Amino acid sequence: MKLIKIVLILIGLGALAVVGKSIQVSQGLYDERVETIPKHALRLASVADALTFARTQGNDVLLVAALDQKGVVAVNLSEFFGAKGIDTLALYRKLGPAVIRTALDSEVTFIEWEALGLPFEPRAQAVAAGTNFAAHAEEVGLDEGPFLFPKISKPSAWNDTLPQSARLDYEVELCAVPINDFTIEKPSALGVTLCNDFTDRWDLVRNIDLDGPLGRTGFADGKSGERRLPLGALLVVPQDADVFLDGVALGLAVNGDLRQQGRGSQMIWNASTVMQETLHQCDQPYQYQRAEIPLTECGAIKAGTVVMLGTPDGVAFQMPNIWMPWPYLRPGDEVLTFASHLGVLRTRITQ
Length: 351
Description:
By secondary structure, this protein is an alpha+beta fold. It is built from 8 helices and 19 strands.
């Protein structure tokens, strides 16, 4: 009888230790509030170094001249160049930056954020770099360096709602977008947009094979799905994407509480390296819904493919808290995602 009591006490102490550790790792990293869109997110990239585009919900392409809390001041390029119905990337390829710059002195119009949709027409399968920020790799216990995985999510608009799932997590990300097909022999210029890599951590953990290469199992299942890849309303096309990204500050708040912040310069692989690694691994098999899929088409990363560049630390997930629902996103939560020169995402979680 005494032995049984000792065993029960030890089990109770072990359970308390697990609960305590789960609570500890679920605490936020920052004691700061984000009440409004941060100023740096509304600071237009220098027109000498980059062009900033947006697109109306009616698919008119805009050249942005200024930003504020309410919306953008922009030139309607679709009207200016008589190019109705042409996507942003196609218009950029057709005209080139020098010709587009000639529109900067034209008549501008104020357009509210709510009137803006996706800034270009993206492809439905994205490529993502996991643990590309060292601090995030440390917090989730993955120290093997960056790895890649496919995300099967048709990108959604910057202000779309997102349905809750079992263990819904957030990740602020900078995303690169090839303007032309990107090949090893002929790299394309890259656009940059803001995105969020929403994940059901429960699906990821229950499908992952930790004995295999990272990214090949679990990740496509946990990260793919409807509206789990919102994009910002802005697409910035800099002269040098890697230099531009180094200077970008990014962050995320949940219900006004700051959860993540970092800088593009903290990435282990820069955007060009992620693109090159994607092509090197294009034919490797990845598991998704019990079938094998490729990371991307071999030979070229197609224009309009969203390439996700990783997230800083501060995500909800830690292995000790996977059993607890409360650290994760719940109906009614609002996620504000932001980055220098790239605007914001507002994502409200629904039932």
